[in-house]
Design brief:
Layout: H1 4-18, H2 24-36, H3 39-47, E1 51-58, E2 62-67, E3 72-76, H4 84-99, H5 109-117, H6 122-134, E4 138-141, H7 162-173, E5 178-180, H8 181-189, E6 197-200, H9 207-224, E7 229-234, H10 241-251, H11 258-266, E8 270-275, H12 283-295, E9 301-305, E10 315-319, H13 324-337, H14 344-350, H15 362-371, H16 383-401, H17 410-427, E11 440-441, H18 442-455, H19 461-474, E12 478-480, E13 486-489, H20 492-512, H21 514-522, H22 528-537, H23 541-554, H24 556-565, H25 571-579, H26 585-595, H27 601-607, H28 613-623, H29 630-647, H30 658-672, H31 674-695, H32 698-730, E14 738-739, H33 747-751, H34 754-761, E15 764-765, H35 770-782, H36 788-801, H37 805-816, H38 821-829, H39 836-849, H40 855-865, H41 870-882, H42 889-898, H43 902-915, H44 921-930, H45 934-945, H46 952-959, H47 966-978, H48 983-991, H49 996-1009, H50 1015-1026, H51 1033-1043, H52 1046-1057, H53 1068-1078, H54 1081-1084, H55 1088-1097, H56 1103-1114, H57 1119-1122, E16 1132-1137, H58 1143-1152, H59 1154-1158, E17 1162-1165, H60 1176-1186, E18 1189-1194, H61 1196-1201, H62 1203-1214, ...
Parallel strand pairs: 6-9, 6-10, 7-8, 8-9, 16-17, 16-18, 18-19
Antiparallel strand pairs: 1-2, 2-3, 4-5, 4-10, 11-13, 12-13, 14-15
């Protein structure tokens, strides 16, 4: 028999030759019918190896395909009708059904019933129900917090568009949507959009419990009517994601194959609940998960993580901390359950200011209620003390809930065992590893525990190790992990606490070997939470000070964070170390904020009046996190001062940042006193509404604080203004006219001649009525809310009564931004509006939604598409076409072939390309050859490129030389790239033609697909990133993040340091920072020192989040310490040789080396350090003789004054006792000098004083000195 795959391919070819217009679904159907009629072929296909890959496309003849068995199959004459990808898809679809008929009929009930009864989830229903009854858990969409948020790049247009800038500003200001957490997950992950969702939150905020609860709810639903099957996976296991999914079915005794799993993923039959992104055990597994997510973009997935980490997931939800009212309600109900309801107020009175942080999550608040002793009426003073007391009281707590029988001596050894296991799991087998174990095989745990007990002299250690591990599980201190045979702590917080106790015991010894303590503990992120808890438990002030000081040596922010974790009694001394640091103000204010300490409060209040507005803003934002009520009055007074200046200004925008400063103070005040902020904002918005909407975040802050009261009031006010306007219209009222005012000093007036100016002065206009202005203002306010349920139904009603078309259009835009079911129904109805402008806006908003899968909406669109009114039916068909609905195909083909207007024919061609149904190819080929309008032919060519039709190529390439608008030109470039043609794209980039940015993006994607991305292409892509307001900035950021090489990264770091060198907009530094934060950690690790140096030298706001992001992904803080490039006791000594006339330049260079000193890489010596009474010559000689590096700062003065030092330095060099580095400060003839044979800095031998920017020269010199110093260190090892 002929090879069955070849026979199948020839069958496809024959069907296409007989009927070229077949779409993919119909083609698959006919092929399957033919296979069913040929039992021999069907049997052969069921056992034959699948097609492996497509090798090449052979011109006009056909395809060659290689099979797994190594054979080559040639398929003749299909390429005119089926692209390579679609041929592959048809073959795969047919083969899947032939080789996996079980996919369609698989019985999931045994798996679902197993999950329903699984012991791992038995306590979830009760636990979650109890928590929900006491405090409903909420989440909100997470918005990136930045002074210059990145605009919605997909919506951005020309950079000079004022409307676009306003729109972007409003989008950036819109607050996150808030909802019950399960409702939010269902909406975004399981609703019409089916996005991948990242759920972030603090430890103990309920992320895992929420995911398990969703699992159980879905299991109940699927048992009733199976559609999509939920699978819960803990990501802490060191296995591939597919292996972990298969293991879940295996636990249920349900046998499935990897091929079946692949089928289910392709058919979107699974909902994956993936818990603990932050616990993934290695970078390898992280990358595998990222690839898996990208390979399955339509499979619903929900991820959880501690922080807002990045897997490239766009939709991110954040668990909300408990509000004060929720905490009050929970405490009252929980203490009532304990039988001590009268003590709720006593406990709550102590939960204020800093203590509030220990109870902002359900887990911690429950623990607090468990340990509260009505006799002492005291609560723990820190999170560490809370865990310590909970551990000490656990035997009593467990007996109160359900007594458990345990082995002899268990309670005596319980804490010690947990501390040892927690420490061992964090440390792993390799003390220097950045990874931790969050699960442990039970037999491995028994072995570890047995050896530990042996070392402590405990008899019969093997038996006791087994028994006590079982006891820990029975008492719910440990539990079975997802991986069969593995155990884990009940919660990661407990593992971190018990490891902290173990560290505390070892601390005296650890402090004796500071180098090891820094490298193996403080510098690794996995230990940070445990060390923070340990600090709160340290009772020796000197010990706490030593730990914080060592942390400051590693990283200032780490030191600040840990300083704030120390016992309150030590804060004056320890936080005083932060205050005393000799750092720039912008660094100090962030470090003080990081401490979250009351001791830092006076200094933060001082910074509120700092002349640098950015520093004042930072201080205000940290004050808002203190929960200190004493700050309220000071903030209000400061806000009044700013308001007086702000509202009395004559102009706003540009470089003025007063509005942002005002917003930051209001936001800080909103955290401390929501009620006072609400009243303040209402008054200000009434009086200065337009200004505040355009330049501040007043509206979104108020919406967040008071939406449920504020929005109904606004809607009522809108109706009143609308009724008054309609009454005036009915009575024939006319607004008084006004003369146009154009002051002679304005640019517009200066461009006019005298006659034109006079004509304008005599022109009268009718200004908008006060009622119109009020309604417009209310709609602008509503744009800042995501609480669509509060206003969408009312907006639909007021639309019908609205007399003004501009406001009606604004309402349609608001409906379109909501993706609300009622709003979509209303937009569909508006496709038949009398006004062509409103119809066009409704079409625009519906197309913008991109995905409408509600059957009622689709049915309504289909009915309108059959409407007798041409415009109504055309608009509905356009929307269906943009939804890729083939129902629009006949109408679009008809209009392409028959409509008189070129614009309609062009739109039809564009839509056919979007639909992607091959039945339109003959009509498109006819149009490209015969349509009389060149722009129609151009749109047809773009559509044909979607089908791989080569007839489009000449027209597309020819169109590059024809002036077209931005969007059409972008489509032309995309069309050319679909054929893999690179040279025209390179030509566009080299010549800087319009839309060169799109050409650079498409060329990068082409080269990436061929694994040949070059440095020139990446540099072009970097230039796209620089381009102000380019609409594809998000695409550029993603590509650069994935592909950036070392040279590109250097350009990015330089762009952060010197943004003035680039043509840029206000979002430029944000875009650069986003790329740096998303680059592969192995690429960014060695950039950390340079970024830290920038952070200390310049105020670059983005570095305050870029550096922690990179550290988090690398899992360490300090690059040099991690790679042991700064061994303790091996500091490199540097000697400065310079003339007195060059002292100011020497000081500048020393400032650029200050970070190396703080990191312990170098110590430096200069003549200024000679003390009165010292023997000058003796001291200089001693320093020269012991220096590792001698810097000769060269100028004409130095050549004269330092001749002896230069000679001595060269002798040291030749003896191999020192490196000598000449640094050319000022122009001088140095040919033939003793140092002339040595490499000179700067590398281009350009004297520092001749550089346009001396900082750039000194930075280059400092980087080279760093490299030489580190090189010497390595040699010494």
């Amino acid at each position: 028999m002929t090879d069955p795959i070849a026979q199948l391919c020839q069958m496809i070819a024959e069907f296409l030759r007989n009927d070229p217009g077949l779409d993919q679904a119909e083609l698959v159907k006919r092929v399957e019918e033919a296979i069913a009629a040929d039992p021999e072929l069907a049997a052969a296909l069921q056992t034959h190896h699948r097609m492996q890959q497509q090798n090449n496309r052979d011109g006009a003849k056909g395809f060659q395909i290689s099979a797994e068995d190594g054979s080559t199959i040639f398929i003749e004459g299909t390429h005119y009708h089926l692209s390579e990808e679609e041929l592959n898809a048809v073959l795969e679809t047919v083969l899947h059904k032939q080789q996996n008929p079980v996919v369609q009929t698989f019985d999931f009930k045994p798996y679902l019933q197993f999950v329903r009864q699984d012991s791992r989830y038995q306590n979830v229903r009760a636990l979650y129900t109890e928590t929900e009854a006491l405090i409903p858990l909420e989440a909100e969409t997470a918005e990136r917090k930045s002074a210059h948020p990145e605009p919605d790049s997909d919506q951005a247009r020309a950079p000079d568009s004022e409307q676009t800038q306003k729109k972007d500003s409003k989008q950036a200001q819109k607050k996150g949507e808030r909802f019950p957490v399960l409702e939010g997950l269902r909406k975004y992950a399981l609703g019409s959009e089916q996005q991948h969702v990242l759920l972030a939150g603090q430890p103990g905020s309920g992320k895992s419990t929420t995911l398990k609860r969703l699992l159980l709810e879905m299991v109940d639903e699927e048992l009733a009517a199976p559609t999509t099957i939920p699978v819960y996976v803990q990501l802490k296991s060191d296995r591939t994601i597919t292996d972990m999914i298969l293991a879940e079915f295996r636990r249920a005794k349900v046998r499935i194959t990897p091929e079946q799993l692949d089928d289910w993923l392709l058919q979107d039959q699974l909902v994956l609940l993936l818990d603990g992104v932050n616990e993934i055990p290695s970078d390898k597994r992280r990358r595998q998960l990222q690839d898996f997510r990208e390979d399955n973009p339509t499979t619903p997935m929900i991820f959880t993580t501690r922080g807002l980490g990045n897997l490239g997931i766009e939709k991110r939800l954040e668990m909300r901390p408990l509000s004060e009212s929720q905490m009050r309600e929970f405490v009252g109900k929980y203490l009532s359950k304990r039988g001590i309801p009268d003590h709720a107020d006593t406990l709550l009175r102590q939960l204020r200011d800093r203590l509030r942080e220990i109870a902002e999550t359900p887990l911690l608040l429950k623990m607090l209620c468990d340990v509260f002793d009505p006799a002492t009426q005291q609560i723990p003073k820190s999170k560490g003390e809370l865990f310590q007391q909970f551990d000490q009281d656990y035997e009593r707590i467990k007996k109160d809930i359900q007594p458990v029988s345990v082995s002899e001596d268990f309670w005596e050894f319980k804490a010690d065992i947990l501390q040892f296991l927690a420490f061992s799991m964090l440390q792993t087998d390799d003390a220097k590893s950045v990874e931790a174990w969050y699960t442990l095989p039970r037999d491995r745990a028994e072995t570890l525990l047995e050896n530990w007990l042996n070392n402590r002299g405990v008899s019969d250690s093997p038996t006791k190790a087994k028994l006590w591990l079982k006891d820990l599980c029975r008492c719910h201190l440990l539990q079975d992990a997802k991986e069969p045979g593995d155990i884990e702590f009940h919660h990661q917080l407990f593992q971190e606490y018990y490891a902290a106790e173990y560290l505390l015991q070892r601390l005296p010894d650890l402090l004796k070997d500071k180098s090891t303590f820094k490298q193996d503990y403080l510098n690794l992120l996995k230990w940070t939470e445990s060390i923070a808890l340990m600090l709160s438990l340290i009772t020796d002030r000197d010990q706490a000070l030593k730990v914080v000081k060592l942390a400051l040596d590693i990283n200032f922010r780490l030191g600040a964070r840990l300083a704030g974790e120390a016992a309150l009694a030590f804060h004056e001394a320890i936080v005083g170390k932060i205050i005393a640091l000799s750092v720039a103000d912008w660094v100090k204010v962030e470090l003080l904020g990081e401490t979250h300490s009351e001791v830092a409060l006076p200094k933060l209040l001082y910074f509120l009046t700092h002349p640098d507005i950015d520093i004042a803003k930072t201080a205000a934002s940290y004050l808002g996190e203190t929960h200190n009520q004493d700050a309220v009055d000071i903030l209000i007074r400061r806000l009044d001062e700013i308001s007086d200046k702000f509202f009395s200004q004559k102009s706003w925008g540009g470089s003025d940042k007063t509005g942002k400063l005002w917003s930051t103070h209001v936001q800080a005040l909103s955290y401390l006193s929501p009620q006072a902020t609400t009243q303040f904002l209402r008054e200000k918005l009434d009086k200065h509404g337009t200004l505040l909407l355009l330049t501040t975040q007043a509206a979104p802050i108020l919406m967040q604080l008071d939406a449920e009261r504020f929005i109904p009031e606004l809607l009522e006010e809108f109706r009143n203004a609308q009724n008054e306007e309609n009454r005036k219209i009915a009575s024939g009222w006319e607004e008084p006219t006004e003369e146009i005012q154009i002051p002679d000093s304005t640019n517009l007036a200066m461009k006019m001649d005298a006659a034109t100016r006079e004509a304008f002065r005599n022109t009268k206009i009718t200004p908008p009525s006060s009622e119109w202005r009020r309604r417009n203002h209310i709609l602008n306010l509503l744009e800042n809310s995501s609480d669509y349920g509060l206003f969408i139904p009312a907006l639909i009603q007021v639309f019908e009564q609205e007399p003004d078309e501009m406001l009606r259009k604004q309402i349609i835009q608001l409906l379109g931004s909501s993706n609300h079911d009622a709003a979509i129904s209303s937009l569909i109805q508006k496709l038949s509006e009398n006004s062509s402008n409103l119809r066009a806006e409704a079409v625009k908003q519906l197309i913008k939604l991109k995905n409408i899968d509600n059957p009622h909406h689709l049915e309504a669109l289909s009915q309108l598409a059959e409407n007798d009114d041409w415009s109504t039916s055309w608009n509905a068909t356009r929307v269906l076409g943009n939804l890729k609905d083939s129902a629009a195909l006949p109408r679009m083909i008809y209009e392409l072939e028959n409509h008189q207007l070129p614009s309609i024919r062009s739109t039809a061609a564009q839509t056919l390309g979007i639909i992607g149904n091959q039945k339109c190819i003959p009509s498109l080929l006819k149009a490209i050859n015969h349509d009389s309008d060149k722009y129609v032919r151009l749109n047809v060519a773009c559509a044909l490129s979607c089908f791989g039709q080569k007839e489009a190529i000449p027209i597309l390439i020819d169109a590059l030389g024809t002036p077209t608008n931005f969007d059409i030109r972008a489509e032309i470039i995309k069309g050319i790239s679909r054929f893999g043609i690179k040279e025209p794209l390179r030509g566009i980039i080299r010549s800087g033609q319009p839309c060169w940015q799109r050409a650079a993006i498409e060329l990068t994607k082409l080269e990436k697909s061929q694994k040949e991305t070059g440095s020139t292409t990446l540099l072009d892509l970097f230039n796209v990133l620089v381009e102000p307001g380019h609409k594809s900035s998000s695409e550029t950021i993603d590509l650069l993040s994935e592909l950036a090489d070392s040279k590109t990264l250097s350009c990015l770091v330089d762009a952060l340091e010197n943004p003035e060198k680039y043509t840029r907009d206000i979002y430029f530094s944000n875009r650069v920072a986003l790329v740096l934060g998303r680059c592969r950690p192995e690429m960014m690790a060695d950039k950390l020192p340079a970024l830290m140096d920038l952070y200390n030298r310049y105020y670059i706001q983005q570095l305050s989040w870029v550096i922690p992001t990179i550290q988090s992904r690398c899992k360490f803080y300090n690059y040099e310490i991690f790679y042991d490039l700064i061994p303790q006791g091996k500091t490199i000594s540097i000697y400065f040789s310079y003339s007195s006339e060059d002292e100011s330049l020497q000081i500048q260079l020393a400032d650029h080396l200050i970070l190396l000193e703080r990191q312990g890489i170098i110590t430096s010596w200069s003549k200024r350090q000679i003390l009165p009474g010292d023997d000058r010559a003796q001291v200089i000689n001693q320093q020269l003789n012991t220096a590792d590096i001698i810097l000769l700062l060269i100028s004409s003065d130095a050549m004269t004054q330092c001749h002896d030092e230069i000679q001595r330095a060269i002798e040291q060099y030749h003896a191999g006792e020192a490196r000598v580095i000449p640094v050319l400060l000022r122009p001088v003839d140095w040919a033939g000098a003793p140092f002339s044979q040595l490499p000179m800095l700067p590398k281009n031998c350009q004297p520092v004083t001749t550089w346009a920017n001396s900082d750039e020269a000194f930075q280059e010199i400092a980087e080279d000195i760093r490299a030489i110093a580190l090189e010497i260190r390595k040699e010494r090892e």
